[in-house]
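Section 3.1: Structural characterization of target chains.
Under the original work plan, the team committed to producing a structural model for every single-chain target entering the pipeline before any wet-lab resources were allocated. The record below documents one such target. The sequence was received from the expression subgroup and is listed exactly as submitted; it comprises 403 residues.
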Amino acid sequence: MAKAKPKKQKAPATAKKAAPSAKPVKPSAKPVKPSAKPVKRKGVAPRPTAEDLQAQIGQVDAELLKLLQERAKLVLKMARKSGEKALQGAGTGLDDEALSQIIGRCRGPLPRRSARAVFRELLSGCRSLVRGLRVAFLGPQYSYSHLAALRRFGQSVEFVPVGSIPAVFEEVNRGHSDFGLVPVENSTDGRIADTLDMFTRLPVRICGEVEMEIHHTLLGRCSRTDVREVYSRPQALSQCRNWLAKHLPSARTIEVTSTSTAAQLAKEKPGAAAIASLEAGVHHGLDVLAESIEDNPSNTTRFAVIGGGPSAATGNDRTAILFQVEHRPGALAEAMNIFKRSEVNLTWIESFPIPDSKRAYLFFVEMEGHETDARLRRAVAALKRKALRLEILGSFPASATED
């Protein structure tokens, strides 16, 4: 009997295939999308936006205005306590001394020139709260004398334009104006004779100075090739004579009382041009035909501030005097030797003919130091014993040249 073959047994249905020894690694996470907002890092402030900066500027402006008003209140309180003494330095070199101390602490991107202009107007505005000042100058507006007066006194004064240098002296001498501003010398043409002449005639003192760079502009309402006449003050025409000879050889030069008057004529007359300040051209609506036409690029004019009380010593002062000595050999040398023995340094000397006198001269001398300094007092006293006439015109702080 045949044996039955054994049946193959099937694996149970529930049985699973053997798993491999190493399991596959699944990705840990989905990639992170970049966020629109900046990631803040510890210790690092986010960069301010333009809106943030504008808001900060507004806050600083508000704080500045608050401080300006606080300063004005303090000036008024000081005026109530000390009266006119609160204005003792008004318009004199003490304003320059105060400005120099303030600007000496200027640090940052704002130029010192800009900071000085801001504080000059601040001083001017605060001063006007106590008492208004009248300042006479050789006008009309935007003459170089007017620009120098603006740089000395700021905008918050009453400016009185007059037609001549003698009229400025008369305004101050009669008490119609508190201060006057007159040109004394120019680096190209030297002394201003009208000013020196008035110092010999009226007892007006110098209390300050302004030294300013002078840049002449050719102004008109026609093209430069059509200019037939050029108007200006004699000094301005002289300071541009080489430029005029080279660029406008056929134009006729005509002298007038001020550069601003020249600008007015150039506005009204066809074919006319003026040599004046750029500010005068803007004021009269003239075109700039040529800039910086002065022959000397370092052209400067020094202005004297006249009127007011004596300036206190600052340690960086100058004193101006005028004197007359006998007309004999060696008289002037003996006078000059006094300054040498006293170790007084002279910064300026000019001879000036005495009106209605033949071969008689007055001498204008400027020296380092204040009239209250011991050395200067000794020198002036010794000179007075030898002089026929001697007058102290004033002491004032030396000023830096302004552009």
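The longest strand covers residues 389-397.
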